[in-house]
Amino acid sequence: MLPIDPVAVTILLLVAGIVASFVPLVPGGAVSTLGIAYYWAATGEPGTVAFLGFVGLGVSTVIFDLLGDAISARVGGASTLTTIVAAVVAAVLMFVLGPLGALLGVVVVVLLLEYIRHRDIRRGIRTATITAIGMLASTAMQVLLTISMLVGFLSLLWL
User: Fold this and answer.
1) Which of 12, 17, 68, 146 has its CA 20 to 30 A from that of 118?
2) Domain limits of the chain?
3) pLDDT in tens, the chain (159 residues)
């Protein structure tokens, strides 16, 4: 057995994964998966099928984190260039202004670049709105998936 209590470490990492899901560019699913992997390495539990299920949830969460914003912008009609610029702006503003700054920065960049591209303010607003909604939905999905990992782990412990 590893020297630190596997249950405490796992629960700590699962909760940290939930919190990290609220922060852009921080892979909450990877943090949660690390907790499950630690427990699995320390105890041999859960079984292989359950462990792979947890890993699948963790990978899905990371995919939502990495691709959610770009997919939202593309679904809204943003160009590839707009999507790339918005992602760079989000990364920079995340460190300067935090998650809200990153969200607002992406919305403003998408609105401006799409307005310049089409010369249609309504289209720019529509694309920026869809992007913002998609970003928030992506975050919500990440939170739900990481919460389900915590609930699933606690269920395995106590059932």
Assistant:
1) 68
2) 6-158
3) 556 889 999 999 999 999 999 876 678 999 999 999 999 999 999 889 999 999 999 998 888 777 777 788 888 888 889 888 888 888 888 788 877 888 888 899 999 999 999 999 999 999 999 988 988 888 899 999 999 999 999 999 988
